[in-house]
Amino acid sequence: MTLNKNFFITLFFCFFFLPSVFAENFKKSDIKIIGNRSISKETILNYTDSKKDTLSTEDLNSLQKKLFETNFFSKIEIKISGKEVFFYLNENPLIEYLIISGLEAKPDLKKSIEKNISLKENAIFSEVLLNSDTKGIYEILSASGYFKSKVEYKVNKISNSNVNIFIDIKLNEQFFVKNIFFIGDKKLSTSTLKSAISTTESGLLDFFSSTSVPSVDRINYDISTLKKLYLSRGYYDVQVVNGSIDLIEDNYTNITFVINAGEKYIFEKFTINNKAIALTDKDLLYLNENTKSIAHDSYDPNKLNRLLKTFRDYFDSKNISVNIDYALNKLPGNKFDVVFSVVDIDEKKFINNIVTKGNELTEEKVIRANIFFAEGDLFNPSNISKSIDSLKALRFFKKVNIETADIKNSNNINLIIAVEEQPTGEISAGAGYGSTGSVISFNIRENNFLGQGIQSDVSLQLGTEKVLTNLSFFDPEFTDNGNSLSGSFFISSFTYDNAGYKNKLIGSKISTGYDIYRNVTLDSGLAFDYDSIDVQSGASSLIQSRDGNYLTTKFFYNIVNDQRNRKFQPTEGYVSGFGQSFATLASDIPYISNSVFGSFYKELSEDFIGTIKYKIKSINSINNEEVKLSDRIFLSDSELRGFTYRGVGPKVSNEFIGGNYSYSTNFSSTIPNGLPDSWAARTNIFFDVANVWGTDFSGALDGNKIRSSTGVGLEWTSPLGPLSFTYALPITKDSTDSIENFSFKLGGTF
Prior knowledge:
The chain is an alpha+beta fold. The chain has twelve helices and 35 strands. The longest helix has 21 residues, at 2-22. The chain is globular.
């Protein structure tokens, strides 16, 4: 028994204490590096823990592993002699020349490969990186449709320290998508599925577009798109198994998506699980009433998220500090009970410090002016997403991320705003042609001048009916309290054949704006213009009597309330406002003008976005003089379709002279068009009601008849540039009106 006890004591001692007895520690100064040519000892030892003065055998093994991972060395051996450690290294050579051949006719493809491979001239060469880059090149070629291409390489050793690398790409013909198939329990029509995905079957536009080129990345994106489509249509259990690329004859491929849609679900029941002390009965009633808007609708996560955002915005507006989220409980018969859980925020946190990173050009004040929080504010998570959207809308940054960092033993947090800047300058030229004539344009624009968020713009337009030169700037944060400043100088010339005169203007304006309330802005300023009216020889005597030069100086202001969910292609909310202009007594013809306008947006369903717009305008002289020809009111081609621009309203003989008053109301809705989402094409049906009337010209014919029209329009960002078509039928009109059923416009930048 004593023997056994002594045995186990000895065994215990050996197991736990002998390793520490035999383990050795080595001073960093006793480490010898042998074989390094271009990489210093200090750089090598930096891969250890800098706080340690001595290294264990475990530390040495870790250092060896880290050095191998750098790909700087082809050999790393460790030998220990007494208290000294020897590292025997073989450095990988440097790349003197890297030559990629075979892509002379495809410079963009070559540039993409050069950008994405790891091997670079004057960088370290390794076989591992070469094999990895070769695989990457094959992936890039396949993603561009160049299947069955070959990549060959040759490494020429110049010396022990330098190599030349030659990569030869034997490019096969580019493949295109011939057919797209959807198989399985797909439930939705093939045309609907094809219009949803970005991949398209080959056609006439292959020269301009790459969407018919088979790509693994695009297929994976399409799988995600299809899942979102099915979820939005109620198919909660949908599975898109895969999307395969099958090579067939004549450099074509077939794409096949395997879909199992499952059954359709509906929202049957809504439950409010309230655990928040802060909520009143009135608040709970608000939540319950709003759930009725989607009751018995098909399951759609987008509807739930919009409802969740509505609730969170409501709490924010009431300064109620709660968290709200939802969970889905399946009910018999493919139905859901949606449970909204509301809980108090146990610990309020305050913002201690805000740090910005990555803004090398953009000044920090520009970022701070576009976020919804400041130091000392109560932390509200919803302000994070709103701030990210606001910063992205500037178009200064490629990426925006906001992270939180808790401070130990404190109810404060720090916020880190990390951005990745992108080029903000634009140079564009364009050409367009439409039913109203042709135009060419040139534009230079900088959206972030000097990194201060200042927009500057120089533009020139030369068209059949107009010549326009404009210089402008806009500083959204001109003062520390958020006042904006804008200004412009312009020279223009307009020819109006249907009015019998040519109008030349030179002028400028300056204005300032600021927020009155949340999303409510006031803009006011001064403007002047010098107007030369040159009447054509065949014009009526009344028009000829208005020939001459006119000076106008005016004060103006506009108040706008913008409650849209987004500025571009909004789906919810509204924008409304009114404004006035006062041509002063220093003007040749003093006047007062008024405008009231508004737009309302409502998502009726996934494919139908309803819009109602209205506009009312007036202009009248102060001293009973006739308002000059160039200041009179005409309806724009977006206010009244189906009629020519400046083709309705008061007339003198055959000449349209414009009116003193106008109004317009437009009803429209987007509709499905069967075109792929990647085309970014929108189709609208519309109904316009408008009129322009009132004249202080003696002898002029005034028309008070209400005009109306209905029709369909298509807007498409085509490979050739923005393209729009409109077909409208006048419903009510005057006998003197000028009709234009079909109109189109083509223009783009290059």
